[in-house]
C-alpha cells in the first residue's frame, strides 16, 4: 500500500549533571536537533529531515527521547545525533550526549524494546545498590514487573525505575 | 594450410574509477575580480558546506591546476561526491557580495580525456 513510512529513533540523554534531564523540553530539543542537522548536513539535510520530523515521546526522569523521521532520511538524523554536545536552558549549558538505543519502524516496537531495556536496567540498579531502603524499593519493582503483563503497569514501572535511577546517580 | 583459429579474449573494465575530474571556469558578472588558488579552494568548500553541511565539506577535493587569469581550474573529487560537488557549484551565486557563476566545461573519470576537448577544436 502507499503510505509514508517512518523510522522511530529511541535515544537516551546521558549527562553528568542531574539538572540536565529535568530541563528537557520537547520544543527546545526539536529546535536543537534541527539546528544540528542544518550544521552537519547543510541546507539539503535540514530540508530533507524536517518534513516528517517530530519529538514523539520525552521522559524527563529517565532521559528517554523518541524521535520520528522519514524512512528515506533517517540516517541523516541518526548521524547528526553524536554532534549534539550540550543542552542549553535559561542561559545554563549542560554538557550531555545522546545514546541511540533502538531504531524501529513503529512506536509499538520501540515501546516493547523500552520495556525490556528498563527491566534489564532495574536488575543492574539492584546489583549496584548501596542503601537498604532503595534496595527494597527496587526489589518490589522487579517482582511487580515480572507479575504484571499489562502495558500501563509497565509504563508506571519505567517511571519509578527512572526516579530511583535519578536518586542512585546523585 | 588452414589458418590457425584465432582465440578471442574480451576484457571488460568493470571497476569504476575512484576519482572524477572536472574542468570548470568561474565567471563574474563584473570584470576585475581576482582570486588566488587558496581563495578559490575556500570558495568551493564554502559552496559544499552551504548545501551539504560540514560532513560533505570535508570531502577529499583537490584543485589540480588553477589559472588566475582565466579563473579556470581542474578539480578532482572522489566519485561518490561528484553529484554533490556539481550541484553545489550550480547553486553557488555570489562571492563576497559579487555575483558569479561556475561554468562546467568537461567532466570525465579519466584525466587524459580533459587534455583534448572536441568542442574547442578549431578547424582551419
TrEMBL record, chain A:
It holds the Pfam family RNase_P_Rpp14. GO terms for cellular component: nucleolar ribonuclease P complex; ribonuclease MRP complex. GO terms for molecular function: ribonuclease P activity; ribonuclease P RNA binding. Its main location: nucleus. It is found in: Nucleus, Nucleolus. InterPro entries: Pop5/Rpp14/Rnp2-like, RNase_P/MRP_POP5, Rnp2-like_sf. Keywords: Nucleus, rRNA processing, tRNA processing. The keyword Nucleus applies. One of its GO terms (biological process) is rRNA processing. It comes from the Eukaryota. Residues 149-170 are annotated as: Disordered. SUPFAM superfamilies: Rnp2-like (SSF160350). Gene3D superfamilies: Ribonuclease P, Pop5 subunit (3.30.70.3250). The keyword Acyltransferase does not apply. PANTHER family: POP5 HOMOLOG, RIBONUCLEASE P_MRP SUBUNIT. Component of ribonuclease P, a protein complex that generates mature tRNA molecules by cleaving their 5'-ends. Also a component of the MRP ribonuclease complex, which cleaves pre-rRNA sequences. Belongs to the eukaryotic/archaeal RNase P protein component 2 family. Component of nuclear RNase P and RNase MRP ribonucleoproteins. RNase P consists of a catalytic RNA moiety and 10 different protein chains; POP1, POP4, POP5, POP7, RPP14, RPP21, RPP25, RPP30, RPP38 and RPP40. Within the RNase P complex, POP1, POP7 and RPP25 form the 'finger' subcomplex, POP5, RPP14, RPP40 and homodimeric RPP30 form the 'palm' subcomplex, and RPP21, POP4 and RPP38 form the 'wrist' subcomplex. All subunits of the RNase P complex interact with the catalytic RNA. Several subunits of RNase P are also part of the RNase MRP complex. This is Ribonuclease P/MRP protein subunit POP5.
UniProtKB/TrEMBL annotation, chain B:
The gene is RPP14. Keywords: Nucleus, tRNA processing. GO terms for cellular component: multimeric ribonuclease P complex; nucleolus. InterPro entries: Pop5/Rpp14/Rnp2-like (IPR002759), Rnp2-like_sf (IPR038085). Its main location: nucleus. One of its GO terms (biological process) is tRNA 5'-leader removal. Gene3D superfamilies: Ribonuclease P, Pop5 subunit. The keyword Cell cycle does not apply. RNase P consists of a catalytic RNA moiety and about 10 protein subunits; POP1, POP4, POP5, POP7, RPP14, RPP21, RPP25, RPP30, RPP38 and RPP40. Within the RNase P complex, POP1, POP7 and RPP25 form the 'finger' subcomplex, POP5, RPP14, RPP40 and homodimeric RPP30 form the 'palm' subcomplex, and RPP21, POP4 and RPP38 form the 'wrist' subcomplex. All subunits of the RNase P complex interact with the catalytic RNA. Belongs to the eukaryotic/archaeal RNase P protein component 2 family. This is Ribonuclease P protein subunit p14. Component of ribonuclease P, a ribonucleoprotein complex that generates mature tRNA molecules by cleaving their 5'-ends. It is found in: Nucleus, Nucleolus. GO terms for molecular function: ribonuclease P activity; ribonuclease P RNA binding. It comes from the Eukaryota. The keyword tRNA processing applies. It comes from Propithecus coquereli (Coquerel's sifaka).
Amino acid at each position: 500500500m502507499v503510505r509514508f513510512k517512518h523510522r522511530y529513533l529511541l535515544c537516551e540523554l546521558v549527562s553528568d549533571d542531574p539538572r540536565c534531564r529535568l530541563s528537557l523540553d520537547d520544543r527546545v530539543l526539536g529546535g536543537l536537533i534541527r539546528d544540528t542537522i542544518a550544521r552537519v548536513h547543510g541546507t539539503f539535510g535540514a530540508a530533507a529531515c524536517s518534513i516528517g520530523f517530530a519529538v514523539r515521546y520525552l521522559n524527563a526522569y529517565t532521559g528517554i527521547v523518541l524521535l520520528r523521521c522519514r524512512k528515506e532520511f533517517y540516517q541523516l538524523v541518526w548521524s547528526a545525533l553524536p554532534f549534539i554536545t550540550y543542552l542549553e536552558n535559561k542561559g545554563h549549558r549542560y554538557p550531555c550526549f545522546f545514546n541511540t538505543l533502538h531504531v524501529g519502524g513503529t512506536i509499538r516496537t520501540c515501546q516493547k524494546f523500552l520495556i525490556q531495556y528498563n527491566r534489564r536496567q532495574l536488575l543492574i540498579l539492584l546489583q549496584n545498590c548501596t542503601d537498604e531502603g532503595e534496595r527494597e524499593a527496587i526489589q518490589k519493582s522487579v517482582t511487580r514487573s515480572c507479575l504484571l503483563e499489562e502495558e500501563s503497569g509497565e509504563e508506571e514501572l519505567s517511571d519509578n525505575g527512572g526516579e530511583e535511577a535519578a536518586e542512585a546517580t546523585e | 594450410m588452414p589458418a590457425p583459429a584465432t582465440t578471442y579474449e574480451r576484457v571488460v573494465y568493470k571497476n569504476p574509477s575512484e576519482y572524477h575530474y572536472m574542468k570548470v571556469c568561474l565567471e563574474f558578472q563584473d570584470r576585475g575580480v581576482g582570486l588566488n588558488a587558496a581563495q578559490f579552494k575556500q570558495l568551493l568548500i564554502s559552496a559544499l558546506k552551504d548545501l551539504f553541511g560540514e560532513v560533505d565539506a570535508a570531502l577529499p577535493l583537490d584543485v589540480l591546476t588553477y589559472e588566475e587569469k582565466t579563473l579556470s581550474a581542474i578539480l578532482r573529487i572522489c566519485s561518490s561526491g561528484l553529484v554533490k560537488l556539481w550541484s553545489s557549484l550550480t547553486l553557488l551565486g555570489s562571492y563576497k557580495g559579487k555575483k558569479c557563476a561556475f561554468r562546467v566545461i568537461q567532466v570525465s573519470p579519466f584525466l587524459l580525456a580533459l587534455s583534448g576537448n572536441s568542442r574547442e577544436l578549431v578547424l582551419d
